[in-house]
# Entry
Amino acid sequence: MKFYSKPRRTPTIIIVALIDIMVVLLIFFMVTTTFIHQPAVQITLPKSKTGKQVKREQGLVLTVSPDGKMFLNTQPVAADQLVERLRAAKSQNPGVVVEMRADQKTTLEVIIAVVDAANQAGIQIINTFTRSGAAAP
# Structure
């Protein structure tokens, strides 16, 4: 007895369906991924025993590196331009808050210059960031 078999089709891969699946997976991973805010400058915050948790304001973040370079919301700013930039921010938002992140090796002279610039611009509230733990000697 002779059996007849149907000629088999060669399998094909439907590329359009694969692209659709890849796009859906890409969108899924983009939506579910947690984006971590990385600061523009890597600094080591000083430790504080009595530091308090404050509510984060939508204000200006001023980062001061150990060598005295300043960054206002990740953009570099010169010390002589700081007052003007703070005044401009104050004119746009009268209740603006400056959040200062200074490295533990930053000199007191630079920190005082930042506080003076904020006072000249009319900004009264300056929050500072610290790490929790024992104070550094």
About this structure: The longest strand covers residues 60-64. The chain has a mean pLDDT of 80. The chain is about 30% helix and 15% strand.
